[in-house]
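Message: A physicist's question: would you kindly supply an amino acid chain plus fold tokens?
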Amino acid sequence: MAEDRSGQRTVDEVTAKIFIDGAAGTTGLEIRERLVERSDLSLQHLPDAERKDPRARAKALNEADVVILCLPDDAAREAVSLIENPNVRVIDASTAHRVAPEWAYGFPEMEPGQREKIASAKRVANPGCYATGFLALVRPLMRAGIIPVDFPLTVNAVSGYSGGGKSMIEEFEKKDSPAYTETVVRTYALTLSHKHLPEMQMHAKLAHPPVFAPSVGRFYRGMLVEVPLQLWALPGKPTTIAVHDILFAGYRGEKLVEVGQLEGGDPRKTLDAEMLKFTNGMKLFVYGNDKYGQVRLIALLDNLGKGAGGAAVQNLNIMLGLPETTGLV
């Protein structure tokens, strides 16, 4: 494929073959929706009758330029083991490889140089939706020395029920199901061992995992991820403005991550978890009270957008040398 003067391959010259393994699931459908109309890619399709045929599946996996896995963890590991063609590149949307050292972590805005790691990687692990919000809020403050590596952090979050996949969608939507619930909001992961915790700790570079308190609400998509901080307990006792300035500088120029104004210039006194539904970006907010030395850091995103399908497409674009928001805005 030819390159332009910046080193990026032009859209008209890219004909990469993309195979989504697990295209019938929630995340797979979201990714397919973002790719299906694109003329710069060739989506490979496996007929329903062949989806569980090991030989047909292995053939599709090995003939693609990029495979996107939208599978349970064990099935994702199996799919990777079936790939024998050394030229096949993989984006895994499952939890299976998010802390594997040989896999690039697919959050381009997280660190300086992260895009370059993704661009050159054969294997990219798509981040978890909760982890995306948490890391977006925490990593710039840790790099700046505001949050020490051994500081005790708490994460509170609420997500739309689509984040739980088909079983949770059935729980909230299918009234004739034994699992159906009328619940408006419920907490879960009360064992303090949510599957996103390892990547939160590893990629934030924390000495200890945060206390993570997720909830699910009676809405399909969208989420809020919040990290409250006692500023008086941090080294140097930073101000709200100092925290905001670090986040603002950390994402200056980003197209898919935006830092909102401080509350004095922001008319919103509440934030709606569905505010960015059907979008592919994320917005970060800092609400503080310097009298008490406290801030609430809040990330707002669509759990199926920047938290899943949108992130996978962004990573795909980077891996192919395309403008990374192609098909996303």
In short: Residues 1-12 have pLDDT under 50 and may be disordered. The longest strand covers residues 223-230.
